User: Fold this.
Amino acid sequence: MDPASKHGRTSNSSSSANQTTNNTSNAPVKKSAKELKAERRALQERQRAEKAARAAGNAAVPSKKPPSGSATSTTVGSTSSTSATATVVPSETAGSAKTIDSKQKSSHTKEINNKQVDMFSHLEISKGTNTSLAPKEIHPAILMLGLQFSEFKICGANARCIAALTAFKKVIQDYKTPEGTTLSRHLPTHLSPQITYLVNARPMSVGMGNAIRHLKWEISTIDIEMSDDEAKQLLCEKIDNFIRDSITVADRVIVEYGLQKIQDGDVILTYARSSVVQALLLEAHEKGIKFKVIIIDSRPRLEGKKLLNCLVDAGINCTYAFLHAVGFAMKDVSKVFLGAHAFMSNGALYSRVGTAMVAMMANEKNIPVIICCETYKFTDKVQLDSFVMNEQGNPNDVVNISTTLTPKPGLLSEWLNKPDLKLLNLLYDLTPSKYITTVITEVGMIPCTSVPVILREY
Assistant:
């Protein structure tokens, strides 16, 4: 064979081999399904992280870097992160502070929930409200009210019910019926998230539940042919009528009935603070009746101090003591007047925790126990104890041992760090009907066993 031809074939074969190698190197490398899936997952995680950062008001949080297999996606991600950082530099510190504060609150809430007493673990501890995370359809008046409920700025069944109905009036006044529907059909749907938000802030009282059911019934009876402005005005009048008839006028009638039970020389004992009992004692003092009042109070809310200040300012002779001294205070008492959160259909009284102890102690010494309660607080539910249904307050409230507005942590301040220690802060208890002498309502003085009759007749 000719050497030249042999050399030519060799060079041709080598050039073709080099060309094949170059083509192979220039051709795009195909990625496996696992690599593509990993890249998609990384992209989704990065987008999810950026969305969460924007929602928390902290868009400057750097996003996760995508895999090094895609140079284009890495460039885009770094560019977007840089621009976002440059945009939010002025509010970066505030946003991060909010994020850290919310994380600390959530972790603290988890610690408290993990240390609940086993017997009461079914009772959820109130988590408070976060107005920044509230749905868009929540009215500003409801946002403010939920915050006041969760922080116990508004306490008492009557005060909470009046505040809730007043807030619902504002919601109704600002409501606009969508096209293709009617007010009587769509307004209950619009009120449902507002009610849910209040319930999440703090469990609903029995009186609030009855008032809301009455409001929904009034909405269902509205004439379809009525204009929206007339219907909203009518509903606002119905709300005002309910507050007037079931609370304001009812309290005046209860006070008139209660004056028949107070005579000169009486020593009246009351527990915590009831707005109806307070009005009764003030009215009796204005009528010139000479009597003394013993106020029994308990931590952590110390509601009796507000009643004490009010009665002392009016010139009534008062004695103030804590719940552990109720046995000693009972020796001079002639009558016991108590308020109510609700009355069950079996005649049991659902009221501020400690009420059952006061009623049982008075019954033991044959002292009449008189309850002042409006009929809108009556319910057809039956409850036999305080365990199945109750409201659990924040255990940290028990830590405060101060009797003034300035908090003072006691020996329990580090209770979360002690694995063998749990705190319980129940807000209500149940008093059986046998410890109650009579109930003063706006329909008259009745035995507590007549609650089902009132529910059926009214």
About this structure: The chain has 15 helices and ten strands. The two ends are 123 Å apart (CA to CA). Confidence is low (pLDDT under 50) at residues 1-28, 58-100.
